[in-house]
Amino acid sequence: MPRPMVWVPGRRALWRAMRAGDWTIESAAAAGGVSKACACRWLAEAGGVCPLILGEPTGRRLSVHERDDIAVRRAASEGARQIARALGRSPSTISRRLARNRAARHPHPYRAHLAQAKADERARRPKAAKLATNPALRAYVEAKLRQGWSPQQIARRLRTDFPDDESMRISYEAIYQSVFVQGRGALRKDLHTCLRTGRAARRPRGRRPTAQRGQIPDMVLISDRP
């Protein structure tokens, strides 16, 4: 049976302690929560070079490697809490993934490749715009746009006006998309006139009009030169 991956949070803490400088093998082992012998084995296996990204995992989606590790650990009869501790994830996250991707009529209750395929498919599905599903946030954004605020200003101000309400958060890019992409029921169709540009379509950054591209300002044609 394949051997599960080692305890990732412990390795991450060990390498962080080493990178901080002024360390001993004992202090690094203590930071990783392992014995001196285990720390020496990790160092030898890695050839003295850190094999991990030292930052903590971010985002809700599991990586392909994490899904592979879950499959191996479930095959070894590990529970959700054990797997969560090994991957540095919350037990509830692992429990949801196990329940969502359980394979019917299969000896192993979790199959990594099927889980990844389902995750990719969910990511591709069109999602309702956030402003279309949050009336309070939509009303706030519409009011600020009519007052002449830019999407960047609105996105920043939301954190000041609603410091404890995570539902009142939206990126300025999402506001632009809701203004320019019609048919999603997010904002009123006339709000593009409230933007400082007044345009009904967004111009990509760095793109100049075709007629001006490659021209020299105040250029004098050869036929007009003395």
From TrEMBL:
It comes from the Bacteria. GO terms for biological process: DNA recombination; transposition. Residues 59-101 form the Transposase IS30-like HTH domain. Signal peptide: none annotated. One of its GO terms (cellular component) is cytosol. Residues 198-226 are annotated as: Disordered. Residues 199-210 have a biased composition (Basic residues). It holds the Pfam family HTH_38. Keywords: DNA recombination. GO terms for molecular function: transposase activity. PANTHER family: TRANSPOSASE, TRANSPOSASE INSI FOR INSERTION SEQUENCE ELEMENT IS30A-RELATED. This is IS30 family transposase. It comes from Georgenia thermotolerans. The lineage of its organism: Bacteria, Bacillati, Actinomycetota, Actinomycetes, Micrococcales.
